[in-house]
Structure formats: structure tokens, C-alpha cells
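Entry 14. Structure prediction run on the chain below.
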Amino acid sequence: MKIAISLLCACLPVLAPAAPYTPKDGGTVIEQLPRRADATQLALRGLRQQLTDNPQDLALAAGLAQRYIALARSETDPRYLGYAQAALAPWWRQAAPPVPVRLLRATILQSTHQFGPALHDLDAVIAQEPANGQAWLTRATVLTVQGDYAKATASCARLSALSTQLVTVTCIANVASVTGRAAASERLLDLTLQRSAGAAPELESWALTLLAEMATRRGEMALAEARYATALARQPRDSYLLGAYADFLLDQRRPQEVVKLLKDQQRIDALLLRYALALQALPGQQTALQAATAELAARFNAAMQRGDTVHQREQARFALFLQRDVPAAVQLAQKNWAIQKEVPDMRILLEAALAARNYAAAQPVLAWVAANGVEDVALQRLVRQLGPQDGQKLSAARKAGAL
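Output returned:
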């Protein structure tokens, strides 16, 4: 089963959706809605009406849900994931829905970090359709986030006969870049992208973003910036790409550019966080910073009340750098580490542990970095700063293989 590009890109990393927002008064502009005459919105409205008239039409429901999932990413609007789920309502709670619904449900679940149920659905889809390339790709994405690199690589390998070379190599490079094979995987992906003229913009953006992150981890900042610029030219509203580039700019101490980049992208919690971090680094922005900080606090509190764990990485950064609540940051970073193990998850736990002078809290990440050969200049700097300060710590670090 060849992978449809519209759904393929929906399984790629997506930033956390915003928590509910209550305006201060009735005159507050909450959102600029898409124009009713917009061709995409007109088409969606027509499909919704057809589905209302025929709610059990599986093909119609799946097609509409797929379009919503793609829009959730391209428009950085998490509401579309809810619309997609609503389109699948007749089958959503079924233990074993039809394969198209089950695959879409897995995609929505992984987008909201419900990894266990997502994998359960994906494994069921693959059991029924071993040649379902989309299921293998989404499975690889989830397993990589969880840090199960062997299974993720195996899932990527299955794509070689089911999709394009660029999809397969990007999938494999995503894993290899954090398992001690960064340089070789970066060269292979760069070469494959150059040979993939005519690839869909979404796919090119995915590969370019990964290449930019690889260059950043090696300390090649000029190369990373060039790749980010090219990716943004293809997908200027991609929420993951915007967040990654904002982090790059923050690390380069260029907060004014972050403010410009994200001034109209604050609906997404993770982007509002980066916007606030940029404001914090600029003079004369105290009023705007206080407003952004208050808004983030309200969103994170609402998420905690719902038992939502999607925001824990961002909330840990918020607690550490904006609230200066180091104990809370350590606790949140630890909870986040239990769920997902990407490089930013490693970084925030090390940063929080360093701020708390809590060497024990850093131990799981130090051991993970050493065991998997993770290459990243920012992580290496934090590891050095966390370096052992007494014999007991030295012994523990050597035992874990971190030094």
C-alpha cells in the first residue's frame, strides 16, 4: 500500500494543542476564522453536509477525517483533529473498527501523545494489512518518540518496498541520528533529498527539518539555518518546523527574530512558550511578557486539571525559565521523560537537574545518552556542566557509561 502524502505528513511530529481559552470580555477577538468563501472551507463544508446526510458512509467519513488531519498540521490548528474524530464518531469507540478508521484513529491518538492506544491500533492494522505503508511509518514515528529504536528501525525498513526512497531514508535517518550514526545518516539523507526532485513540499520540509536539526546537533549553525530557511519556504505554517527554528534562534540569542516569527502563531502552546521566552530576553517587553506568562499558566493549569500529559515538556520549560520554579521543572521533566525520549526531552531534564543541582535526576538521561551514542553539542555541554563533583558521583557516572 503506497503512502498517501496527505496522511503521511499527519504522522510527523506536531506541537501540542492549546488548552481552552476564556476571553476576558465579550469584545475580545479569539480567532480569525477561515473565510467562508475559501475553496478549502467550501469543499469541507460540502463534505460535512454529505456526511450529515450519510453518517455511516465509511469512505466519505475517512476521506473527510484525512483532510482534517492534514489541515491540523498545515494550518497549525489542533481543532481539526477534533473535527477528524467527530467525522469518525460512528466507529470511534469500537474495539475493532474497519482498517481505514483504525489507521486514522491511531494517527489522531499519536498526535495527542496517546502512544499505547495508537500502537495497539497500528499493530492491529498491520496484522490485517502487512503491506500498509502508512501504518508502518506511523508506528516508526511513535516508537522513535518512545525511544524503542530497534523496533522503530525495523518499521522503517519495511517501507523500502512500500514507499519512496526519500520516505524510507528519512524515517531511518530520524532514528539513526540519535543512535550514534548521525554523520552517515545525515549524508545519506542529504544525498537522497537532492536526488528526489519533485517530491511533495510536505515531504521535502520533513527531510529538510530533520537535516537542519542534525546540523544543529553537530554545531554547524550556518548550514542548519540555510536548511531551516529552505524548509520554511516550502511549509511556512508547519508548527513543528516553527518551533524547531524558534529554538534554534533562541539558542543563537536572536529573540527579536523569534518574536517576528511567532507573533501570529500563539494559538499553539509550544509556540506561545517560545514567544514568551523571546520576550523575556528583550528589553521593554515586560507588559507583553506578563500577559504571555499569565496565558501560559492558565493553559497549563487547565491541561493539568484534565490530566493531559501532552504539555509536560513545554510546561517543564515554562516552570524552569519563566516561573523559576526549579523543583516543579524537575518533576515535570521527569514525568515527561517517562513518556517520551527525544533530544528536547533529554535537554530539559538535564537543564532542570543542573538548575536544581540534582545529579540523581540527571542520571537516566546521562545513561541514555551514553548507551545510545546520542550526539548533540547542547547535550554535551550540559553533561560537562553536570560533571561529577565528588567520588560517589564519579563512580556512578562511570558505571552508567556517561563518562
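DSSP finds 23 helices and no strands in the chain.
Filed with the rest of this week's runs.
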